[in-house]
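Handover notes (outgoing to incoming on-call)

Open items:
1. FPL domain-containing protein: sequence verified, structure written out, both below. Nothing else pending on this one.
2. Nothing else urgent.
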Amino acid sequence: MNKANKKQNGSSDYTLEQYKQHYQELLQYSNIIDNKSKQLICEKVELICEFSIWGDQNNSDFFDYFFEENIADKLLKIMIRSSFKEIIIGIIQSFAILLANLTNKENVNYLLSHPVIQDLIMYNYDFTDEEIVDYYISLLKSLALRIDEDNVQLFFNQRMSLFPLLWQATKFYNHKEIMVRTAVRTIILGIMKIQNPVLKKYLTRFPFILFFVHFSCYLKHVWLEANKEVLEGNVDVKEKMDDLVDVFYFLNDIYAFCPEISHILDNSLLTYTIIPAMLGGILFQKKETLSISFTLHLTNHLINNFNTTNLSKNIILLLFSPSLQKKLCHLLEFNIGQPRSYLYSWSFRNFWDQHQDVLVSQANQLFDIQSYAFKEEACDKEIETINKALGITDNDHVLFYCKQLLLNNGQEEMSPNKIRTNLMIYLQTKDDNLLFLLLNLIKSVLMFKEKDILRICLFQEANTNIIMKERNQIIYQLLDIFLIDPSLRLCTIILTCQIIIHFINLDKLILERETINKLYEVYHYTIIKMNQMIKQNQYHEVIVSQYEIIYNKYNQNLKILKPNLDYLAFSPIIDKHDANVDLMYRQPVGLKEVAIKDLAIFFMIDLVFFQIISQEKINQNGNLQVLQKINITNSWIIGQNYEPPDGCQLLSCRISAKTIKDKLQPCTSGECFWMEDDENFIIMETQIVKKEWAHIIYHAKIKDVEVMIDRGEPRKLNVNIKISSSNSIKEQYQDVQLLFDDCTYAQKTKKHIDDTRKSNSKKSSQIIENRLTQGLQVCNEYFKSIKQQEQSQ
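FPL domain-containing protein structure tokens:
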């Protein structure tokens, strides 16, 4: 009905006489509603809506007539008398458009307060027709967007304790159409925002709490379905996971807009979703539980998405607390199951439609309203179970016991936490996916801001013998991961190292002799492996050319690496050698990638090793740096200005380049300079205003540069530059031509680059070999001391 925008065309298009005529014709056509009149009726309904909107914005006489003739009521009666879908949809749509476009507050309040609105909400539509569902939900959404603190009483019948709009909307929470589900969530959130004490009370008790329970059960089945489809490879993993994340955002908004219901929603999600599907998967791996991989992935998402709520705290406690109350263990192992009123497949009719008097009676109790309903055992049992599970009637619920764990009052009888035990056992698996997901979860928990939670889970300072023993056991298991052959993906190794370093830096942890022995075993194993590799010519060149890049990424910057695999974590794609997937997340292909991966693992283990022995005071010198000399030009960046080092030689030249043009900065003066440097190939231009400063046009490592004097022009130097990458299988190159003023400059530049390449290659090789020799010596000395101790005993 874009015609509603015609008001800008002038009042001649809309007159009161025309408005009255359209209405009278509508009454005439609706006397007999049949195939002949239905199209005419729909046209007149549309015109009346259009004229009403124009009148609301331009001429009050139009809405005066709307009031006097009670047109809203007439439209409803036509709809009730009609069996034609077109007429029903047309009238629903007209009311939705009116509500969306009216601007006069008096007119809006008149329409909202009209009894017709409640009748439209509660009318017995044919909801098997998807088109009717779409227009009906659109009407509810238009209404919800108009509700605020001033008019909410028009929709919430406190005398009867009913909120028809909200109650009807929640019946579509699990509709098969995503647009309908999204609209329903918008309606619910819009109403929850309203600050009204009576409404807030209604939202925290039966019957509305049925929505939380049903939605939690629905969420469990959505997860189970997604789990099955993802593991079978029958669905786009990213698309499926995005849908699940959207649900997290919806729940997050509920927590934000209506904190009064947070404890109820926590209990509902824990009891009907998380415990049976997720924690049950760790405990039992039954049919109605998630796979362990999917469980770990979703748990990580939950903790990260709800890090400002109590839900994350409670999930972490249930997962990692060493012991739980016996009553809580019973609730975990013997879940109450879903209520009989819940249906996974959408149906507008449900169990409670047969017991409306019970619903009203229960709601009335909130506001001390006397009402009567026949006692029905099935209803009473259902209500009692739900109220108990959500913590409304007593303290025998999950959230209560989690709070008691935080209080640590020591009055409850405790049992070992089987969930934590099972998770720690999974640290011994050789399943790369499973280990990555578990380590990613542990890392998220370690980064959690609530220190009291981490203290209970033994993830804080090791200030007791129990915590020290537990910590040693975890580190020992993590060190074993390095000995898995073939080695796991780099993303898994990165997380392993980060967690070990976190525990070591957390406090002055005293490692047991068994853990120290395992550390030396791992380091010795890695050194031997690297020694064998570097002696092979096919690997030696790659290691020498890549060691600096790999060292900086996986040793110097290990702490800031964030291997978030997300959707690939449990997808078959990780078993495919896809060059588009970063080497961090897949197994290597070809000699270069094998060498890069093993070198990265060596540098990470090297860092872990010296972090630990430094803590243990075994080696006071700490980690020996691989890079002994720091060249200030190493940190220069293309496009930035720097002061050239004293005594450096600059040779004037002109430059042109082919391919990867984004790597080259244009020379604005037309004249550039090649700067002599022992490690880097640098092209610059001096700044016109400040000649002592240089603007970097190109910067690359000399080891990645090959040069040749042009046969036709001896002053021209053809430069081929390899674009360094620690991940790409295919090499990328850039061709640059330097034209010097004199051929001797070209020859001098070529000689410097060739000589430096040879020198740096020998130097790099020597640094790596020295590092391996030093490491091997440290290990052999330690093993020798251990043997001497055993002999002396």
